[in-house]
Amino acid sequence: AQVDILDVIVLVLLLLGSVAYFTKGTYWGVAKDPYATSGLNGSASKKGSRNIVEKMEELGKNCVIFYGSQTGTAEDYASRLAKEGHARFGLSTMTADLEDYDFDTLDTFPEDKVAFFVMATYGEGEPTDNAVEFWEFINGDPPSFSQAEEDQPLKNLKYVAFGLGNNTYEHYNLMVRNLDKQLTKLGAQRIGAAGEGDDGAGTMEEDFLSWKEPMWAALTEAMGLEEREAVYEPVFSVEEREDLSPESDTVYLGEPNKNHLENMQKGPYNAHNPFIAPIAESRELFTVKDRNCLHMEIDISGSGLSYTTGDHIAVWPTNAGLEVDRFLKTFALSEKRDRVITMKGLDPTAKVPFPTPTTYDAAVRYHMEICAPVSRQFLATLAAFAPTEEAKKEMVRLGSDADYFKDKVSSHMLNIAQAVSAVHPGPWSAVPFSCLVEGINKIQPRYYSISSSSLVQPNKVSITAVVESIRIPGAGHVVKGVTTNYLLALKQKQNGEPDPSPHGLTYAINGPRNKYDGIHVPVHVRHSNFKLPSNPSKPVIMVGPGTGVAPFRGFVQERAELAKRGEDVGTTVLFYGCRRPTEDWLYKDEWEEYKKALGDKLHVFNAFSRETSRKVYVQHLIQQNAKLVNDLLQQKANFYVCGDASHMAREVNDILAQIIAAERGIDEKKAEQVVKSMRSSGVYQEDVW
Ligand code: FAD
What we know:
Elements: H1 2-18, H2 25-28, H3 52-59, E1 63-68, H4 73-89, E2 93-97, E3 114-122, E4 126-127, H5 132-138, E5 158-165, H6 174-185, E6 189-190, E7 195-198, H7 204-223, E8 236-240, H8 258-261, E9 275-284, E10 293-299, E11 312-315, H9 321-330, E12 340-345, E13 358-359, H10 360-367, H11 376-383, H12 389-400, H13 402-408, H14 416-423, H15 433-439, E14 446-449, E15 460-466, E16 469-471, E17 478-480, H16 482-494, E18 520-526, E19 540-543, H17 550-564, E20 572-578, H18 588-598, E21 602-608, H19 618-624, H20 626-634, E22 638-643, H21 648-664, H22 668-680, E23 684-688
Parallel strand pairs: 1-2, 1-3, 3-5, 5-6, 5-7, 19-20, 19-22, 20-21, 22-23
Antiparallel strand pairs: 3-4, 8-12, 9-10, 9-18, 10-15, 11-14, 11-18, 12-13, 16-17
This protein binds flavin-adenine dinucleotide (FAD).
Flavin-adenine dinucleotide (FAD) binds next to β14, β15 and α16.
């Protein structure tokens, strides 16, 4: 009887939307194919396909889920909604990258269909890269729709909205708030509340989960839907290929696309096509044994990639061997790790998130974010495939009880293989590989603020990266950052250091088919608005504790070079912070060199937080130098902050307002307005993460 009850609970859970249909948006979308050059997947760019109304008609869809995504989370939520909408409510869903459509036909969107908008807000209230055009269109005054000329051109459009934001930024969830206002103004009808997820409070996933249930209820009502019993349906077919071996030259062993597979690496290099760049030089910046900070010089010559000081470089990581092994073992894939598989979408809009044929090993090592935090909803899905009834029961509990999940999984920072192994050591051989691919995000490149000046070294990009290593008290394990530990291993190998596998982590350093041999790493460059003033005589104030100093090394390097070339360079103030001068003072000797070129134009203020019993942070030094800061601001200085978004950046903002109030004898409210207008006019810039 217990078993029956359990089965019922599983079904109910599935029914209640914990179906954990977590896929990357690309699976369900007719979105841009990240591997378009592989020629394996259909491309959305065929003529006429930018008309979403036509596209939905052609594919027989009645629900589209648009996403504006920068790091993949919004895209992931869009896919989960698509799967859930289909499984529970029989909607015929698709996801869509906002970049892939035009929106002038939204006024012809049929009444019996629905459009979802899952919108991330990026940086200072900006749209994500893929949402820029949509944003400009919808905020047009008025937007020019294909037919309607009336006041309420979107009166037939039913929409659902969820935003992803971070409350530590001033313009919290601006995208969804603004979109909601604009759509309402144009006559569209929102179904349910506009949801808001908060990354700053660390509650994004729970915010999403608690928003979607009432939303589904409202949608059921508005569209006359009927909820049905949801059962797991795979999104992909997985065919094991006896006719191919890993040596076959059509098999992807981690190559990002067809050009790479065929040894014809060619540009343009971008977020869909990395350049396999040589690391010219790498070294350790800290002097203590248990912490690492890497300086790397990445050579982009001949690639066609370019950067300007203040831009970001993205590094495409490879998972550590230890984690790949753990994952394959947990899901009973170790024995067949090198078997060749072809995966295909079972729905015409479903896209495999990596090129195939490939091997289980390559898919897991190069394309799946296997170390990331676990999603509660995904554990509920996996319950159906648990090896024992006990394990199923536990997975159901973890999936449905947020506090229990926090206690057992998220507070220990377990990854998916660790989380399921803690429930049952496995093997979890019944879990379909499609389910794993659907439920685990596509691995994301990590961004780094370039720490060199393009004026000084146009073909070499510097990175300053602290190696992530978090010991979990009482849990007996250490969470190792995916990318930074991979970079650490590259540095160790490059310098012939005795321990080429730091912390027991080994990597496929030579890459697929030895294509990264000779210390190479896949990268692309992302241009940013974080820029020095075009007139070098303008003063600048920079606040960058820890690795937040990265772009400022580039800024100071650039101003020193300009001074050497005889330019009139304005006062250059840097507030820097670290623990101790003997441990982690980044580029300690270089500042002396820059001082030689910039003379008394350069002021570096150092805050050491562990040198004395009094913890000194950059905020204190800014306060101590209130007069200098205010004087420079009145001389039209630019003000920059880089580093920790959650505390430091916000505190610096507040301190600046206090300084302005005290020095100018105005009240704090007014001073806050001054800081706000500095932000909106681009005088106050942040590069925070
Ligand atoms: P990840 O594997 O991504 O882990 C990062 C963190 O996620 C961990 O520390 C932990 O807190 C959490 N986490 C990981 N796994 C789990 C789990 N299973 N459960 C719970 N929590 C988990 N960094 C720099 O050092 N220098 C820079 O100049 C720099 N510039 C940046 C610029 C921008 C615009 C952005 C967005 C970020 C920048 N970063 C910079 C941060 C950088 O992109 C990476 O986030 C950082 O290096 C960590 O990457 P990782 O892959 O090593 O760690």
